[in-house]
Amino acid sequence: MTYLYNTPDDQHAMLKAIGVDSIEALFSTIPDDLRLKRDLDLPPQMGELELTQHLSALAGKNASPATHACFLGGGSYDHFVPAAVDALASRGEFYTSYTPYQPEVSQGNLQAMFEYQTLICDLTGMDLSNASLYDGGSALAEAVIMALNTGKRGEKVVVLGTVHPEYRQILQTYFTHLGIEIVEIPCVDGIADLAKVEETVTAETNCVVVQSPNFFGGIEDVAAIAEIAHKNDAVVIQSFDPISLGLLKRPGDLGADIAVAEGHSLGSPMQYGGPYLGIMACNDKFVRRLPGRIVGQTEDRRGKRCWVLTLQTREQHIRREKATSNICTNQGLFALRASIYLALLGPGGLKQCATLCTQKAHYAQAKLTEVERLEPVFTGSPFFKEFVLRDTQGNVEGLLAEAREAGFLGGVPLGQFFPEMDDCFLVCVTEKRTKQEIDALANTFSLIHSGGSTIHA
């Protein structure tokens, strides 16, 4: 937000409207023992030029995809964002909308939401989509809530161990004190053990949560997992990578009942972790428990096409105990960005993007494992754009720190999520990475291993 300042006249006018004489009087209700009785410890004031230079210098200390070749993944991806996305999404009528939940929301915003829902349904192969949620993790938790509220009475939730560890942590946070049993199935060679799934999913299972491509980049056999789940009358929830659907079968075609995703890769930058976009789509039978908003198309009294909020199950609109979503703000702007991105690329462009990711990732795995110090961890399963490497010297943090000094964000250390994998790291390769960057990263790792000096990317 642009810096806004208040002149003494502005302050006086506001205080007069409030009905107090001074700012001191405005804060008089704060107990004296809680009030700071000294000046703030701030450096001397700067002029605009000096302050801009100072802040730019501070920002320049960050290592980011703008300054380094980025091979980070694990839920946040450095995909290319066409300039048209920024140009269209930054129009004032979209950029300044806040909470378009109200019935009087503009037709332009309603149409944008409707187009987003249509695109997500096409992308996922599902019957309907809401108009967005907070992010991928909360969308997954909302999907489990929806399954528990809509499906059979069983309260056992089976989650594959290859689901993003932070997503699984969100589920634990949501359900630990609600009497919901969450059972996690360990992975084998980077994907779920189908025999273990068959053994774990029983008549008491309410839903099965699978991520494909999973946290390690591996492609799960979602169709086989869905068959096992449906045989036990359980709901299938798939978390997916939107870009991957340019190549892989859609969740709806694989038997998923609810599909969720982190949608920031559809036209929004990494932004140091957010704000992001929660995607949720499902089959018709879940429509009455779907959180968020659903926009429908209809006709006005003159017979012209128009749009309306068909479903808005917030506690502000219906009884609290019947509400399925208490989300106040929304990710409408990021949903709009996703719509523009998908419309720009089209099916052919999305397929090309996904193909580039896959081809470059497989080239990178082959090239990086030529380094004597590195070896692949999972070799028996196909992967999309991410893969896991092991540092045979067991010093992942040191290896990645040296690579960062050379101009590479080389990967995500996995020890923070899996203590038994503290010698491993996750590498992601998107369509933005070039052969030259991949070769340079491999050369950098090789020089680090041999103790030689590295060259900045």
UniProtKB/TrEMBL annotation:
Catalysis: reaction(s): N(6)-[(R)-lipoyl]-L-lysyl-[glycine-cleavage complex H protein] + glycine + H(+) = N(6)-[(R)-S(8)-aminomethyldihydrolipoyl]-L-lysyl-[glycine-cleavage complex H protein] + CO2
GO biological process: glycine decarboxylation via glycine cleavage system; nucleoside metabolic process
SUPFAM superfamilies: PLP-dependent transferases
Keywords, alphabetical: Oxidoreductase
GO molecular function: glycine dehydrogenase (decarboxylating) activity
EC number from the UniProt entry: 1.4.4.2
Transmembrane segments: none
UniProt keyword annotation of Oxidoreductase present: yes
Residue ranges occupied by any Glycine cleavage system P-protein N-terminal domain in the UniProt entry: 3-445
Pfam families in the cross-refs: GDC-P
Similarity field: Belongs to the GcvP family. N-terminal subunit subfamily.
PANTHER family linked: GLYCINE CLEAVAGE SYSTEM P-PROTEIN (PTHR42806), GLYCINE DEHYDROGENASE (DECARBOXYLATING) (PTHR42806:SF1)
Subunit annotation: The glycine cleavage system is composed of four proteins: P, T, L and H. In this organism, the P 'protein' is a heterodimer of two subunits.
Function: The glycine cleavage system catalyzes the degradation of glycine. The P protein binds the alpha-amino group of glycine through its pyridoxal phosphate cofactor; CO(2) is released and the remaining methylamine moiety is then transferred to the lipoamide cofactor of the H protein.
Name listed for the protein in its UniProt record: Probable glycine dehydrogenase (decarboxylating) subunit 1
Protein's organism: Blastopirellula marina
High-level lineage: Bacteria, Pseudomonadati, Planctomycetota, Planctomycetia, Pirellulales
